[in-house]
Specification:
By secondary structure, the protein is α/β, with parallel strands linked by helices. The protein contains twelve helices and eleven strands. The strands form three sheets. Strands 3-4-11-8-9-10 form a six-stranded mixed sheet, with helices on both faces. A three-stranded parallel sheet has the order 5-6-7, with helices on both faces. A two-stranded antiparallel ribbon has the order 1-2. Strand 3 and strand 4 form a beta hairpin.
């Protein structure tokens, strides 16, 4: 069922493979002709308005004219400066978004598009954060949500999904098997509100670039992201391109992608080409939010990193745990997925152009207390020092 605005307006999307336009009705998650995902036909436009948070950029989003925007106050997250050994680093605190993760930037655009298209119920798959975000914004918009999650997902995230009133479906198996279950649901007629396939999400995550540049008064020299599917890095890439095209900034920052060594397909391809994928498997990792063995937009993420002279880094579990402690002792209680950026800072900081920004993607309140570092909540005020000694 669609309403009049969706019949008069079609999203500016093109199939990433065959180049066909997005259909003028329904909300398919991939091309019916070749099965590929859709991309934003003209990238992203920097068009700030007078609102606050993401509402300020509503003219930049692929939404029908005058359609409601179902905001929860996302965006406008702090950019906090820290002196870390060899220089200054700015932490972009995306863990302070309404549902505790950066996912809210893309979800508000996606759910607003669903509502404009007359969608009444939809399914999403997630390792936790995207599902919680979708459940919240679906509740806000009056859409009945069903969220599929792997059974290893963190308990607090599952409780959060259910608290918003979504139907929670646990899938026995891996993250990729959970995605396959969502695709089967779509094949059986469900609307698949995929934060991976649907490009609305990229228009939302592009706003991170807008905010960083506006706060700094320039583009950063380098910006570091945890990367699973890579939608945040790719959206930010589109956002920085839009800033260049608008003449707001003059340079493109280096984009640094960080993956857990236990599941690092993009790092493997970056280091040794596609043949290295034969050595990649979906192993267990503390960084469950980036446990993605086959990123849907992997080629585009790789191109964005290479085009900006960026790099990929893979980090070990012990480095993730140490990063949790280092960040917590500075007041940032984040989930393990966010903590992968610490080891990347240790390895790369002295070689990165300034200013350097590192993105903290998800809240530590959404993970099991057992994964919190020693000292958190125990009154231990002593600052943990780096084992490598170059950031303490």
């Amino acid at each position: 069922m669609t309403n009049d605005p969706s019949e008069e307006w079609s999203p500016p999307f093109l199939c990433s493979n065959c180049g066909r336009d997005y259909p003028g009705h329904g909300l398919p998650y991939r091309c019916s002709h070749c099965g590929a995902h859709f991309d934003l036909a003209d990238g992203v436009r920097y068009a700030p308005g007078a609102g606050r948070g993401l509402d300020r950029y509503s003219e930049s989003f692929p939404l029908p004219p005058n359609s409601p925007f179902y905001t929860l106050g996302e965006g406008g997250t702090p950019l906090i400066s820290e002196e870390l050994g060899q220089g200054q680093v700015y932490f972009k605190c995306e863990h302070l978004n309404p549902t505790g993760s950066f996912k809210d930037r893309g979800t508000v655009v996606l759910v607003s598009a669903l509502k404009a298209a007359g969608v009444e119920r939809a399914v999403e798959d997630s390792s936790g954060n995207a599902g919680a975000s979708f459940a919240a914004y679906a509740a806000r918009a009056g859409i009945r949500a069903r969220v599929l999650v792997p059974d290893y997902a963190s308990g607090p995230k599952l409780a959060q999904i259910e608290a918003y009133g979504a139907e929670l479906v646990r899938i026995a198996g891996s993250r990729s098997e959970t995605a396959e279950a969502a695709i089967r649901a779509a094949e059986n007629g469900a609307v698949y509100a995929s934060h991976v396939y649907l490009p609305h999400v990229l228009a939302g995550t592009a706003t991170l670039a807008f905010e960083v540049a506006e706060t700094l008064g320039r583009a950063p020299g380098a910006i570091i992201f945890p990367v699973g599917q890579g939608t945040l890095l790719l959206g930010a890439y589109l956002g920085f391109k839009a800033l260049l095209e608008a003449g707001v900034t003059q340079v493109m920052p280096m984009l640094i992608g960080v993956q857990a060594q236990a599941c690092a397909p993009l790092w493997a391809v970056y280091m040794g080409g596609s043949a290295r994928l034969n050595w990649v498997s979906e192993q267990e990792t503390l960084a469950e939010g980036i446990r993605i063995v086959a990123p849907v937009r992997g080629d585009a993420v790789l191109r964005a990193v290479e085009e900006t002279n960026g790099v990929f880094v893979a980090v070990e579990e012990v480095e993730i745990q140490r990063g949790l402690g280092e960040l917590a002792q500075r007041g940032y209680l984040v989930e393990p997925t966010s903590a992968v950026i610490w080891a990347a800072l240790e390895k790369l900081r002295s070689d990165l152009p300034e200013p350097v920004v590192a993105v903290l993607t998800g809240s530590g309140f959404k993970t099991r207390p057992a994964s919190w570092p020693v000292g958190v909540g125990r009154g231990d005020k002593k600052r943990v020092t780096s084992q490598q000694g170059n950031l303490a």
